[in-house]
Automatic annotation (TrEMBL):
This is AsmA family protein. Residues 10-205 form the AsmA domain. The keyword Thylakoid does not apply. Residues 127-140, 313-327 have a biased composition (Polar residues).
Length: 607
């Protein structure tokens, strides 16, 4: 018992001696001028410690730091890069002797960070990394004898961070962004047990304000190698004039697991809501390699992007085009080389610019500078679409290739919703394979090379009634110049087929063929996808009664009727070459007269 008393006496005596020395003979504030001088010498910046530093010893060991500032480079505004109003850290002293850390108080208030880029491109960090580079260099022959620290326990009474502000000022871009962490709190924390966390955050961006708040639970394993986050409920709000209804609300519940040994992070997002959009998501990140490996899986419900995309009803399409000039340089895709990403996406439906698709399935990867759309499948207007594509961003001028198949698609509502073009209806099949270079819009159309074929069954051409045109032309040939026909401007057909090539912005179709019970149409033509001009030369033949589309039958059966299509995609123009038609009809009548003479001659000869 006497030995124990003497040991306790020695420990207490040493503690009292240490306390007396640090308080009576050692004043930490005596070193403030030396600290300030060393910072000035190493960085060229001014460090100001405006209040006395204070110690605490028993029952906790800690330090209280008052107002501290650290300056930006000379001539910068604001003057200070870093400002701290107050920081307090207290650790229980006795448990430290048994490798037990008990933090009784850890708080930080009023930290402000001003990060500036001036008009010359100099930043707040300029000059701070010149000495750190030397410090990080080491002799390659020196053995690494470091080992990870070991704790028997870690207990934190609480952590509180308040009024943290980061200002990002770019004088070159004339932009100012402010990020505020109003509060971050961590309740009583121990290794191996879940603790409550909460935060409030907001940011002022050039064109909108964003705010976020959340609360959940966090756990750190006893071995300090696993961090787990569960039931983190987050609420977000974005406000700005460019947003739909000037505001977008979102919410989600997040769970995460980080294994530090294998450098693997898994994040599960459930109950994600962005206005009317709902989704689930999984994110898996492994950062053991130089380029992190990222896998994303997302499953959406119904997505109506038209309700989320910014709208400006005051501008016409031409005004909007003129207000946003076309880029003249290739986009920089070099960042794709630093990405290893796999994406699996599903969606019940997606609507954008009135175009509706359903049952989306998309698989894509980004790896080694190449974006590979392995598969995109969706239901589209009673049919389906299948697309594969590849974008190579490794060179200065990107290149691409793609293949697209449409099967059983109702073409009229598709074209109406996609391009506001009411030109054709029917059940359409389409195959196209293409490639090209450049992502500049004008060059994209010019340098696209593609081949394909199409087939449309049981449909109609809108804006033209070819049988009506033939009837009118026939009556005029017979001398009835006042002949009119108010039949519907529509031409029915049973099939419309052809092949096409795309080169230098022009679609060439050498074998257009249309069949119906009334007429046959064959020919060729071009469509300019840059100017949207159409130029087709076609030959029509009557094979049935023209009364089938609202009129009396004529007598042009068997005559080649030349038909020309011009105009644009949205306003096509149709016309019959009456001169060629007259010549054709005259040839037919001449041939018929010759046949009658032959028949009469043969009869007289008894043949």
């Amino acid at each position: 018992m006497k030995l124990i008393k003497w040991l306790v006496f020695v420990v207490v005596a040493l503690g009292v001696s240490l306390f007396a020395y640090l308080t009576l003979f050692f004043n930490i504030n005596d070193f403030k001028p030396q600290i300030v001088e060393q910072v000035k010498e190493q960085t060229g910046r001014d460090l100001a410690i405006n209040q006395d530093l204070s110690w605490s010893f028993f029952p906790s060991f800690g330090i209280n730091i008052g107002e501290v500032t650290f300056s930006n480079p000379q001539g910068f505004d604001p003057v200070n890069m870093l400002e701290i109003k107050q920081a307090v850290a207290n650790v229980a002293l006795i448990p430290l002797f048994s490798q037990q850390v008990e933090i009784e108080q850890l708080s930080l208030d009023g930290l402000k960070l001003n990060l500036v880029t001036n008009k010359q491109g100099v930043t707040s960090f300029s000059g701070l990394d010149s000495t750190s580079d030397k410090a990080t260099q080491s002799d390659p022959t020196t053995e690494d004898t470091s080992h990870s620290a070991s704790l028997s326990s870690l207990n934190i009474a609480g952590i509180e961070i308040t009024n943290l502000q980061i200002n990002v000022i770019d004088e070159q871009a004339n932009s100012n962004q402010t990020f505020n962490l109003t509060s971050f709190t961590l309740d009583s924390f121990s290794l191996g047990e879940f603790s409550n966390i909460a935060y409030e955050f907001d940011a002022q961006l050039p064109d909108m304000k964003v705010s976020s708040s959340g609360e959940g639970k966090i756990k750190v394993s006893n071995e300090l190698n696993i961090i787990e986050l569960i039931d983190l409920d987050i609420e977000n709000l974005a406000e700005g004039d460019s947003l739909p209804n000037k505001a977008i609300k979102s919410s989600l519940t997040l769970g995460a697991n980080a294994v530090l040994d294998t450098k693997d992070v898994k994040i599960a997002i459930k109950d994600l809501k962005v206005d009317s959009i709902e989704a689930l998501a999984m994110l898996d990140v492994n950062y053991a390699n130089t380029i992190p490996i990222i896998k994303v899986m997302v499953e959406f419900g119904d997505i109506d992007l038209d309700t989320l995309l910014p709208k400006n009803e005051q501008q016409t399409d031409s005004e909007q085009a003129s207000s946003s000039p076309e880029p003249t340089t290739e986009p920089d895709l070099s960042a794709l080389k630093q990405i290893d990403l796999s994406v699996d996406l599903k969606a019940k439906s997606i609507k954008v610019n009135n175009l509706l698709t359903q049952n989306w399935q998309m698989n894509a990867t980004v790896r080694n500078g190449i974006v590979n759309l392995e598969q995109l499948k969706a239901d589209l207007y009673e049919g389906n679409i299948l697309v594969t594509a590849k974008l190579d961003g490794r060179n200065k001028t990107p290149s691409y290739q793609f293949a697209k198949t449409l099967t059983g698609v109702q073409i009229r509502p598709l074209l109406t919703d996609l391009a506001e073009v009411d030109l054709i209806s029917g059940n359409a099949n389409l195959k196209i394979n293409g490639s090209g270079k450049s992502l500049i819009p004008s060059k994209l159309k010019q340098q696209l090379l593609a081949k394909g074929n199409f087939e449309v069954a049981d449909g109609s051409l809108y804006g033209v009634n070819i049988p009506q045109m033939i009837r009118s032309a026939e009556k005029k040939l017979q001398g009835d110049l006042s002949a009119t026909d108010d039949s519907e401007l529509k031409t029915d057909f049973t099939s419309l087929t052809g092949h096409f090539d795309i080169s230098k912005g022009v679609v060439s179709n050498p074998d257009l063929s249309m069949a119906s019970p009334l007429i046959r149409l064959d020919g060729k033509g071009t469509a300019n996808i840059i100017s949207e001009a159409i130029d087709y030369q076609l030959i029509t033949k009557v094979v049935g009664s023209l009364a089938g589309q609202g009129g009396e039958s004529g007598d042009l059966s068997g005559v080649d009727i030349p038909l020309k299509i011009s105009g644009t995609f949205k306003e096509p123009k149709y016309g019959i070459d009456t001169d060629a038609l007259m010549q054709g009809q005259l040839k037919k009548q001449t041939d018929e007269a010759k046949d009658k003479v032959k028949d009469s001659l043969f009869k007289k000869l008894g043949l």
